Every structure is written in C-alpha cells, then in structure tokens.
Amino acid sequence: MSAVPGRFRAWDLPTRLFHWTLVVLVVFSFTTGKIGGSWLEWHMKSGFAILALLLFRLAWGVVGTTTSRFASFVRGPRAAITYARETMAGRHPFSAGHNPLGGWMVVFMLAILLAQAVTGLFVDNEIDTQAPLTVKVSNAVVSKMSAYHHYNQWIIAGMVILHLAAVATYQWRFKVDLIGPMAHGWREVPAELRPPEHRTMPAALAAVIIAVAAAFVYWLVIVFPKG
Known about the structure:
Blueprint: E1 6-9, H1 13-35, H2 39-63, H3 70-73, H4 77-88, H5 100-119, H6 139-172, H7 179-184, E2 186-189, H8 203-223
Antiparallel strand pairs: 1-2
C-alpha cells in the first residue's frame, strides 16, 4: 500500500518573492534594453533593483531558511554526477529544496546576473545614457565593462532558456512539480521520504536585509558618484 502524501514547506515567502520579482525584472530589463531610447533610464533603474535583490539573496543564502541556504544545496561534482545518472535511469532522487544539479544552476545564474548588474553600473553608450559609476573609472574600463554587459546578456538568455527547459522536463517527463511549490511554498512528499523539519527564519529578518541591500545600492548609484 502506497504511503499517503504529505505536505512539506519547501520554500519560504522571502525566497519565493525574490524568485518571481527577479523573473519580472530580468524580462523587463532585457526588453527595455532592446527597445532603447527613453526606456534605457528604466532599464538602469531595473538593473539597480536587480542588484539589490541579488545582494539580498546572497545574504539570505547564508542566514535564511534551511532550504534557501547555499550550504543545503551546493554540493560537490560527484553529487551532481550521481544525481544526473540516477535521474537519467528513471530513479528520480528526492530533494527537499534544490537538487544537486539545480543548485549549481542557481549559483551560476546568480553569478552571471550579478556580473550583469555590476557591469551595468559602468556602461556608457556614448549617445545619451551613462551609468552612475562611469565617472569613477577610466575610458578603457568603461569600454570593457560595456562590452561584457552587451555579450553577457546572451549568456543570461541562454541560461533562462535552459532553466525553462529543465523545469518543463521535470513537470512533464518526471512528473515533479517545480512551479507550484515556488508559488505557494508547499511540496507533496510521500511519507517515507518526508525530510526532517528545517529551520525557518522570520520574514522580518528578510525585510531588514532587503532594506539594507536597497540602501547600499542607493548609496552606490546616487551618493557615491557625487563624492
């Protein structure tokens, strides 16, 4: 007789809000960057917001709820390879949060998005848009940062497509719902696979962290360039 499925809180509210807000802002940034013109001002503001979000996620990955911490899902290459083999063999291992492969995808996505947000602070299109920190570096640095910012957008686009393909594969081939839990936070888990209760952190702590991150970005793009 099969075990009765139970509910497990996989993702806390701060992590879910981070995820969906980041999705919206990345799409908005990519679109406004392509439209150009007066939209570039909104493109930069969206980039500032993304930078604040990423700083929050880095901090939350250290002090947040168990499944949101990097220590809970960043595993070594051996774990990732073993997980891939088990999955390809049809034995889909259960993971309370990100699986070993998904964990590395999260790390890489955060890294390239952070690089995009940081280089965006130094971009100058030499027409009508100049990022806030271009005045702090040489023209050579601005040129390199602008070039990286341009090419890295396509790496991000490729990773987004790969991410969507992976989610679709889990949803329809492996019958593992990844979208629902990231919306409402809960996962359905067979009783024998139910993980131990993990440590949760108050939403107030997340609010303080995002406020500090936003204040730092404000100082970086508004106050610091005038100093």
